Amino acid sequence: MSSAGAPVDRAERTDREHVRRIGLIWLVLCVIALPLVYFVLGPHLPPGNDSYQAAAQQQDNAVLAAIATPVFLFIWVYIGYAVKNWRIPADTPLDQIQDGPAIRGHRGFQITWIAVTTVAVLGLFVFATVEMAVDYGAGTGSGTSPIWTPAGFSTSVKDSKLLQVQVIGQQWRWTYRFPQYDGVETADLVLPAGQQVQFNVTSLDVIHSFWAVNLGVKADANPGVNNIAFVETKAVGPVDIRCAELCGTYHGAMAQTGQVMTHQDFDTWIRGQVALHQDLIPQLPAYDDFYVPQTDGGYYDPSQDPPPPVDSGLPPASPSPSGSPAPSPSGTDTSSPSPSPTSS
Amino acid sequence: MADTVAGATAPGPLDNDTHNHEIERAAVRGAYWTGSRLFVALSAMLFASGAFAYFYLHGLDSQGMWRTDGQQPSDYVSIPVLFLTLAGAALFWWYTRLLLHGKVESSDWLVATGVAAAAFLCAGVIQLVGMTRTGFYPGSSGYASTYVAIMPVFAVYCLGAAYWLETLFARALRVRSVLSDEQPERDSLERTMFLGSAVGAKAFVVFVALVSVLVFVLFSVLS
Amino acid sequence: MATDIAAPGVDTGGTPEPPSEARTRRWWRRSGLPAAVVGAVVGYLIGTYLGTWVGQDNQQVQGMGHNDFAVTLGYLGGTVGWLAGMGALTYPVQKMLGHQPAAEHEHERSLGRYFRYTLDHKVVGVQYLVAMISYFLVGGLFALAVRTELLSPTRHLFPPGKYLEIVGEHGTLMMMMMTSAILGPFGNYFVPLMIGSRRMAFPRLEALSFWLTPAAFLVLLSGLLIGGFPAGWTGYAPLSIQATQGQDAYLVAFGLMAISMIVGGFNIVVTVINYRAPGMTWTRIPLFTWSMLVTGMLMSLAAPVLVLGCYLSLMDRTVQTALFDVEHGGSPYLWENVFWFFGHPEVYILALPGFGIAAELLPVFTRKPAFGYRIVVAGMVGVGLLSFFVWQHHLFVSGINSDMRPVVMLTTEMISIPTGFIFLAAIGTLWRARIRLTVPMLFILGGLFNFLIGGISGVFLSDVPTDAVAHGSFFVMSHFHYTIMGGYMFFFFAGLYYWLPKMTGRMLNKRLGQVHFWTLFVFFNSTFLPLFAIGELGMPRRVFEYADSLQALNMWVSISAYLIGVSMLIFVYNFLKSTVIDPPSPLPANPWGSRGLEWFTSTPPAADNFERIPTVVSGPYEYGTGAGPMAVFRDEDLMQPEGVS
């Protein structure tokens, strides 16, 4: 049952006293926690410091954690305080429960809350955008025409001052092509230290995602798409590589370790690879942004499929599939080098 | 609960059934109005995402395979479908509007509704039959793929419009009183439901006609 | 007169019969579960036969080497047969003959109505409740299988393909079925009661939305029998096009569930807008009903996009269109965009009902008005609207146009502002309150704690540079488990403990409820908190192998997961004991002392809810203002000034 009138809590504290107490507890905890989070935990946050992009991401993680800390503390302190001070036993009989004060809203509090959250959100947005601009996408796959590119970037491989590494994903391994070194394709990722690298990530079949964890690079490998990500390596060390997009049965097995070496070591290695694959390189398809089989004439004609294996139970490829009419592409005969699709 | 005060001077309360009936009649009428508009909106989301697929693939033009030369649905399919849907929608919309204003005989409305239902039915059937005679394989290009994907959905909507109009037609035939303007039928729940459904169908058939124009433009006009 | 015209319709086949005759029909001739099962089998066989007949020698269909057309038609045929057997198609067919719907067996209180195509929204609510708990537990079993596999990076319980099938089943069961976990049981049961209505706007649509869920559930599970699907719950093309027949099960099931969502949400929206009792103005509607309204709008408008997406995938798989095939003019990005355009509103479909329950229960257990009612409403509507503009944050590293990313980053970060309004309301409502830590209140507070972690971790994902670390890793996993399981499911349990006394007259055992809450809360956090770290340290999602250094953490997580299972067992035991095995004595109509209108009906409410539609005179949260009950049920009482009790 309800009754009018302002109820009184135990110690008869005023609103202002409650606010002061909550504020004080929160402030003390923030003063302790914030430096711990930003200065102690921060430099150890993933993804570490092995490239400028990774360092930027680590910095961003630290900033977000530092902003999140007072938010968490405020909610936890407040709820803890409320439950401790304003509680009545859960099994109080209904007719003995007194209602609380009929506070429907508080303009000052609401406006402050909205203002603070808006400012925080906008601030984070600006910070992250600046970081993306300064670090050329901050290690993410930025698509075919990134808007923030390092000096020395060029759309043509010949004019580019960056080390071009094409990352080719397929089910279920990564391979890497170096167009500036005869287009050699290797099974291992090796990079020189202190070098601006441009990853051109693509796929041969389904969507994968190239994730060089400690370099802070993550770019989806899409078939028919060239996804560009920039990274500037720092010191010598290993590179953890994972696939971060479900690509089928052995998605979890597309994990390997690459290496960042000194410039001389890298030179030696890449020349060794070229020499090793000398016979293979001319047989590889010409280096391109992506590799999609071209079909002559353009359209999919099932009657041109290779015949199914003898014991598959499928009918042999018939020239004119039953149930569907023969297509009559008007006017394409001149342009199509493939045999006419209907021959019944 | 409050006790009754002696000496209340207001008129006596309505009995439960009458009280509920009045409120529910208004609710039913509103429900058909809101429901039909919401159904149009959610169907618009369906076709909008289809149109998105069309424009997205058109813009990407992957491998230059958006549309190979000469791919076009047969005019013997696209033009009759467009005409039938527009005519059916116009007919039903106009005659229902007149009926609601009391300006037309119920027999005229019945004929118009029947013809409109038949028009939508023919449009749906022609479209579905036309799917088997496109002249291009479904996977031959992005255009072909979106055509083969979107048109059956549109055909189903034409059949849905035919179904809705047919139910109105059958209802009006079986229970003539839903069309009558005299009491007590005028305030009956049956009539409210019938008219509510008719008003809703008006919005829906106009929507289907608009979609018909959209797909015509996408597949037969744009290059 | 008015009663039988307005009454719900038929559940017998053919022409309408007077109730007494219909009831005496032999059980095998009536619609219902037996007929539905027979219908499903027959429909499946017909569909498969048709598909095989069309596709057998048709190269256009056999392109992939297997006949997906037959599988898909089989599933669709089975679903149509199932619905026909339940009696869902009788009314649509009768309408074509112009018939008037006949009255349902009125006031039949047997247990059998829970297995029928019923038109009483309260029965549908109970059906949903039992079904959703069952789906949740089955999905949870799959989760335990996943965690068992992840105990060791080198010793494998399942072959990699089978493991992916299990991951996919778990994810899809949860994301698919649980969308209606609050709207289905509590929305359908309580929205009409809360707004003072005697019925739902479209009772047949509501029943349809329920009976589609077992069909979707069984279709999805049956996918395991035909090879499962390797593409997870997100079903990315081209992997989904490459996959074998189990993928069709995923596509059909998800499509069916999307239709269920559309229909269920549609019904709730129309009901809330039109069936409010006199005096139930927009500012007096309970906040739970507001959340149901916004959720219903999202379901109605976002799920059609999913239907199209699943349909496009099926087209690619059955008749070899090239929508997702970059070789022939299609693009995998098309699937990503279409799916996530639905997918993002979907997760707010999961978040909003939880907010609604939190906002609804807090005033009851603090004895104070809802703080900032209008702000909470604005927050819910804002979240709903904005949710359509943020989907591309799932595509940050996918190679989309890089100038889109700052824009989407802004919208995504901005959506955290209205999301925060629920915390604003909670804080304000708790101020100087009379807090009763009942079991529902424990779940609310626990849910708020968890959702805070989930929401803040979302900010890490909305920020592109930090998303570069977290995308596709266990960090994302932990984020959405915190918001959906830690938030939504905790609020679900709060609602269950709170409303069960109105649905059945029994309260769940308090001691067991407290044990359930504390074990779930502790073990939930101990399971998912380390996963943030595991993800940041380089473990991708959906993998069966991982770095050795992460084994200790993974073992900890797996053991905690088993303990979550134990907590759920405690809940199941409590639920069964308190409802069927050894129920306590029945309670009064309003055991929590709530002002809500739904508590002023009998327990359980009468068949038509209210004998007479009430007139609402005040809001549901007028604690401490001295206002009288929310509504008056007799016109005489309207003459009284407010406040006389």
Keywords:
heterotrimer; B: 223 residues; mainly alpha; Four Helix Bundle (Hemerythrin (Met), subunit A); 5 helices; disordered N terminus; C: 645 residues; Cytochrome C Oxidase, Chain A; two-stranded antiparallel ribbon; 22 helices; globular; disordered C terminus
Quick recap:
Chain A is of the alpha+beta class. Chain A has helices at 15-41, 52-85, 107-134, 263-276; strands spanning 87-88, 163-170, 173-178, 184-186, 190-192, 196-203, 208-212, 217-221, 227-232, 237-243, 256-261.
According to CATH, the fold-level topology of chain B is Four Helix Bundle (Hemerythrin (Met), subunit A)
How much is the radius of gyration of chain A in Å?
31 Å
**Overall 3D geometry of chain B?**
elongated
Mean pLDDT of chain A: 86
Given the structure, what is the number of helices of chain A?
4
Distance between the termini of chain A: 88 Å
The second-level CATH architecture of chain B is Up-down Bundle
Name of the CATH architecture of the domain at 163-283 in chain A: Sandwich
What kind of sheet is the major sheet of chain A?
A: 5 strands, mixed
Query: CATH H level of chain B: which superfamily?
Result: Cytochrome c oxidase, subunit III, four-helix bundle
| CA-atom Rg of chain B in angstroms | 23 Å
Question: Strand order, biggest sheet of chain A?
Answer: 4-3-2-6-9
Order of secondary-structure elements of chain A: HHEHEEEEEEEEEEH
Can you give a write-up of this model?
- The complex is a heterotrimer of chains A (344), B (223) and C (645).
- Chain A is 30% helix and 17% strand.
- In chain A, a hairpin with a 2-residue loop joins strand 2 (163-170) and strand 3.
- With 344 residues, chain A is of the alpha+beta class.
- Chain A starts with 14 loop residues before the first helix and ends in a 68-residue tail after the last helix.
- Chain B has helices spanning 16-60, 75-100, 106-131, 142-174, 189-221.
- Mean pLDDT of chain B is 90; it is low at 1-10.
- By secondary structure, chain C is mainly alpha-helical.
- Helices cover 62% and strands 1% of the residues of chain C.
- Chain C has helices spanning 2-6, 19-23, 33-55, 59-62, 68-86, 90-96, 121-149, 160-177, 183-195, 203-222, 239-242, 246-274, 287-318, 332-366, 373-386, 404-414, 416-430, 439-462, 464-470, 474-504, 510-536, 551-581; strands at residues 435-436, 615-616, 631-632.
- In chain C, strands 2-3 form a two-stranded antiparallel sheet.
- At the A-C interface, helix 2, strand 1, helix 3, strand 8 and strand 10 of A face helix 4, helix 8, helix 14, helix 15 and helix 16 of C.
